[in-house]
Structure formats: structure tokens, C-alpha cells
Amino acid sequence: MGKLVAAFAASHAPGQAGFPELAAPAKKENVYKAWAELRKKFEGAKPDILVGVSNDHLQNFHRVQPPFCVGTAESHILPRQAYAKMLRLIPHPVRGHVAFAESLVRVAAENGVDLAFSEDLQFQDEFSVPKHFLDPEDKVPLVPILTNCLNRNQPPPERFYELGRIIAKAIERRPPAERIAVIGTGGLSHDPTGPNWCLIDENFDRRFLKLIVEGDIETLFREFTLERIFQPGKGGTPEVLNWFAPLGAVGVRTKATLLCYEPVPEWATGMGYVCWELQN
Amino acid sequence: MSRYKVEELCLALAESTNAARFKNDPEGFMVNYSLKDEEKEAIQKGDVGALYKMGVSTQAIIFLSRAFGHDNATYVSKLREAAGLPEVKEQMDILRKR
After folding, report:
1. pTM greater than 0.95
2. I need a surface site. Which of A98, B11, B12, B48 has the fewest CB within 10 A?
3. ipTM of the complex
């Protein structure tokens, strides 16, 4: 069996890479410290593959909208050219992992979950920003899973949690020496392009983080329905759905640590970073 | 309404060449989208508030706003007015700086 060796959830907001100087210095430092800690844990876990769960921003899907789509290409360009200037990141190829990606699609189907897949996906901040901070030299291949958080008919949190359980099953089917890390990215409260752009709902964020860290999945499902998740702003807050995936992958009894929460209006986002403590 | 078609049109405006074509000949640009009269009127006027009230995704409306040269503060102000929300000074101050 392969082994899940690291699991994280983190905000992917573009400001932390593209315009860090706009944030209050102390907040920026706290965010960067959180990333440094995540990077240390990531590197210490020595993963062979990073599975990322994050949302399309309508750059790939509008005419057709899958709930979840696995990137099965040998290589992904991070970020796409249109986002290079905003993110201050140079578009470059990042290795994929075809064997794991395709295995994930098959294992999911065997377990009653139908995943779309594509070798032709475009990426912006959703994976480029976290990869930049976690693995700036791109030593670890990425298997991206793009989710529907921002279009209509989003899957509810229970489906994202199930996606995480499916990722764990796919990991079990991998060769014994293979080490896999999982990250869910997005959120927390934000509404870019919407009427609450640059407004942050700290109560929402802190309550969500508390329940995620406690692994209180019953209360999470009961309180953080799609209707509740939409309230701080549909333009971005539904990205917190991606956080249910690493929780599903590790299981609710796994201890988690909140590394940082900072509301950063200049980045238009409540910024959160969580690490699950796994035995390596 | 054809929310999907309106969104497709707005998303197309993310490409600068399409935005230029639209500004040059909005009627011609809209021909292939099979839009209703009220949708065409809102798009031709850059009425982001009307489109928001129609339920069009703001992920798409933003590109129409940019084609009309609205800055982010003006755009959000129009959305909030359409939504019946009061202006928040701190929000406007941040949006004007970005």
C-alpha cells in the first residue's frame, strides 16, 4: 500500500504571492511563517506525489461543468500566462503523475464515484500559489483535481469529504514505497468579483477553522451547508469546500494544528493554514 | 433568461481582442449569443447591476465591467446598489488602492 504522509489545507489567494506588500507587515509575516512551517513538514514527509484539490475559476469549465476533474497530463503549466503578472510567477512546466492520476479515476469508479479527467487544463492561483510556497523547486509531481466551487450546482461538503476518502483509497492501492501528500486549497471567506469583495467574515472563518481542526465532521456538515457557505460571498467563499477533501483523506480522528489565521482585506481574503499530524 | 449565454459572452470579453471587437461593434458581437432584448440592453449599457439581479455570475460580469473601463470600486458600488447593500467606506478605500 502507498502511504499518506502529509495533509494540509491552505488559502491560495493571489495576494500572498502577487502583492504581499499591500498587507499589514505583521499579517504578511504570520502568513509567510505558516507557509515556511508547511514547507518544512512537506519536505520532512518526503512525498513522491502531491495531490491537490482546488477549484476551477471558470477558466476551464463553463460550457461543461464536472463536479471534480483530475488532471492526468504528464506536465502542467503553472500558472497560465494570463495570471503570470498578477501572481508574479513565471509560467513553467510542473511534472504531473499520470499513473497515480489515472489510478485515482479508476479507483473512484470502482467505489461508486465518477470523476472527470483531462490532459488539457489551465491553472492560475489555485495550485500555482501553494506549489510556489510548498515546493518552489518543483521537486514533487502534482496531481491536480479541479472542483466546482464557483459555478452553479456545487457538490455539497459531503461529496468533497467523500472525494478525500476516495483519494485515501487510491493511495492504498499504490506501491508500498510510494509516499503521497494531499492539500486542499482555497478560502476562507472572500468574494472577489462580488458585492463583498475585500470584506471578510471573521466569525465564519474562525468557526470553520475550529471545527476543521477538531475534526467535528457532524457539526461541519450540519452548520456549513452550501447556503451558509454562500453567505460571506459566492465569489470565493465556496472554496472552503476543498478543505473537506484532506479531512476526508486523513479521517476525523487525526490531530490537526491551526498554523495561522489572518484576515487580510488587502488580499481580499481570510487566510487560513492547517496541518494534519500524520505518522511518517 | 439565457444566463449561460450572457455568461459566455462576458467570459469571452476576458480576451482583449474580443473586448475590442465588442466595444467597436456591440450589436455585431452579440449576434451569435441569441440573447433576449433586456439582456442585450444591459450588456450594451454595461449595466452590471442589472446583470447581477438577473443572476449572472459575477465571475463573468467582471469582464464586461472591465470592457467598459470601470475600476473595481465603481464596479462593486454598482453591485452593492443592485443588491440593496450600503456602501462600506473601508471596502471602497481598499478597492481603490488595488
Report:
1. yes
2. A98
3. 0.95
